[in-house]
Amino acid sequence: MPDLLALSARIIDSGTDNGERTNRLTGELSEIVPGVAMVEAFGHVVAFDTGAGLLVFDTSSTRFGEQVVEALRGWRDVPIDTIVYTHGHFDHVGGAQAFLDDAARRGHPRPRIVAQANVVPRMVRYDLTNGYNAIINARQFAPTRRTEMRQARFGSGFVTPDFEYEEQASLRVGGLTAHLRHALGETDDHTWAWVPEHRAICSGDLLTWVFPNAGNPQKVQRYPAEWAVALREMIALEPELLLPAHGLPIAGRDRIRLVLDEAATALEGLVEEVLRRMNAGERLDAIVAGVRVPGHLLQRPWLRAVYDEPEFVVRNTWRLYGGWYDGNPAHLKPATDAELAREMAALAGGAARLAARAEALSKDGQHRLACHLGEMASLAAPGEGEVQRIRAAVYEARAATESSLMARGIYLSAAAESREAAGEPG
Asked: For the whole prediction, is pTM greater than 0.85?
């Protein structure tokens, strides 16, 4: 089992990870400092021994819940007094039932569960959009298993909190205090906590050792400017220990300041430039093409665009401040995609001509244009096997060039869709 603090220190101090994993899903427990443990899962669970039971942040997912509980029991066989949800994503609340079941088996009191007030409305929304979220997960996490994943339910039976707060709350458990703070960031229901006795911050998903998930194209609104504000509030407390829900824990005031400052700087720069261009009257299309994060930040092991990416954050920033109209009048009340595709195919001399041009552009590395033409060809002639095979190849080639899981998932899902339409085995 690695020394997680030593590993993060080596990566931060050198500026390179040398291929070492920063997000591990082992289910293993590490005592980070005396009385503070982290179980690495999807997502991590952080526990404090308060002297009067455990104070726990998050419960991981349904898949990991029992394993996390077993790991905690191997560390401290005492009741779990309080569970804090850092937010309502399934990989943070899905394992809660395993914690309650364990308490019941042992005859321990039921742990109280604390969360920000927007967590319950999120759970209600998940029930309302269960099918849609299953489709999203199929695209994002298992794009080549579309049919199987879409038939699965996204998740239900959430364990709701016993105590909700709005903007701030303080908990006292045994000898420890946890000051809870609401933040807008990846979600509108996020909690981060300051535990002064350890000079520790539990940051939830406000730091995940990847580029901030502030743009996700298939999810509800994210808040990049407010996210940066929360990171700066953490820095101001001068923490000595940072405990994220994904990625490695970090020790040392200077290291923590560096990582949080660079994440905040990247988000602030994107928002500032998008707003400047919006105020100058530029269309979304031009803004997406022109706004970038400095390359040296994206090379940092804690800011690589391997999940979300800056281009998506640009679009989400526009949505937050400007709505869904992108400045192109033709997009205000457009023809359907299929109608436009059929017209373009007719002008080109048939869907096969569009597909052939898409294939040529793809081989030439012009993947953005290739995807447009391949999609039009497919919509104009959905029953033509060769057109579908070309569409699949175009999206597979595009996916191979992408760094973020979100982009790759959508492109590979589209490719799998066309392979199925062409009658090829999955």
From this structure: yes
What's the pLDDT tens digit per position in 197-249?
999 999 999 999 999 999 999 999 999 999 999 999 999 999 999 999 999 99
Domain 335-421 CATH superfamily: Alkyl sulfatase, dimerisation domain (1.25.40.880)
Model pLDDT for residues 162-204, shown as the tens digit of each residue: 999 999 999 999 999 999 999 999 999 999 999 999 999 999 9
Report yes or no: 102 and 69 within 8 Å, Cβ to Cβ: yes
**Sign of CA pseudo-dihedral 136, 137, 139, 145:** negative
- How far apart are alpha carbons 325 and 319 in whole angstroms? 8
- Which listed CATH number (3.60.15.30, 3.40.30.10, 3.20.20.70, 3.40.50.2000) goes with 4-264? 3.60.15.30
Supply 138's token pair.
């199929």
